[in-house]
Write a structure and sequence with these properties.
two-stranded antiparallel sheet, 2 helices, 66 residues, alpha+beta
């Protein structure tokens, strides 16, 4: 069983790793965000990482399709 301090340390380490991934994705021109949620079925918070094209990329693709 982990202590609260150990959980906080793991959370901080995970947050830094995700932030690094976010910076790298943004360096490639991708839009990226992340957040934590604690779904009812989960025993601990779950990290959601969203990586994708920017809104401008989507609009440009739509315009080219027309």
């Amino acid at each position: 069983m982990t202590t609260c301090h150990e959980q906080d340390d793991r959370y901080a380490a995970l947050t830094e790793k995700i932030a690094q991934l976010k910076r790298e994705a943004e360096g490639l021109g991708l839009v990226c965000s992340f957040f934590f949620r604690a779904p009812r079925a989960a025993s601990a918070p779950v990290a959601y990482v969203l990586i994708g094209e920017s809104a401008e990329d989507v609009e440009q693709a739509r315009a080219e399709k027309r």
